[in-house]
Design brief:
Length: 124
């Protein structure tokens, strides 16, 4: 394990807006709900909410299914995180390698730019 450095990264998976719901039994292991501002939450026991009188047409099970299908899994979040980091590293390396060779491969000087273009740029 020597040589490895562990870092924790917090990923914003989504936002809950006014009137939003959570805690219906959706897959939320190792997840944290954080508020950016002051919020008010109405806590309703799930067993009561899923009773027939409060659940016409199984609306709450449908909402739970929707949440499960839209919130990405830990594995897909991790895969996306790794791909994004690899892309950023590749992009940075490519830009840096082009900047190093830019002075040799592109000998354009200010004198090579037509005067009309220079005048337009100066007026902007």
């Amino acid at each position: 394990k020597s040589g490895y450095v562990k870092k924790k990264h917090f990923i914003d998976v989504g936002s809950i807006t006014f009137g939003g719901i959570f805690g219906l039994g959706e897959k939320s292991e190792r997840r944290v709900i954080m508020a950016r501002t002051t919020v008010q939450c109405l806590m309703i026991p799930r067993f009561w909410l899923f009773e027939k009188m409060q659940n016409p047409g199984n609306v709450w099970q449908r909402r739970r299914f929707y949440l499960d299908s839209t919130i990405p899994s830990r594995q897909s979040l991790f895969t996306d995180f790794v791909c994004t980091r690899q892309w950023k590293k590749f992009k940075s390396n490519t830009i840096q390698s082009n900047l190093v060779h830019a002075s040799v491969s592109n000998p354009t000087r200010i004198q090579d730019v037509p005067i009309i273009c220079q005048i337009i740029e100066d007026n902007i």
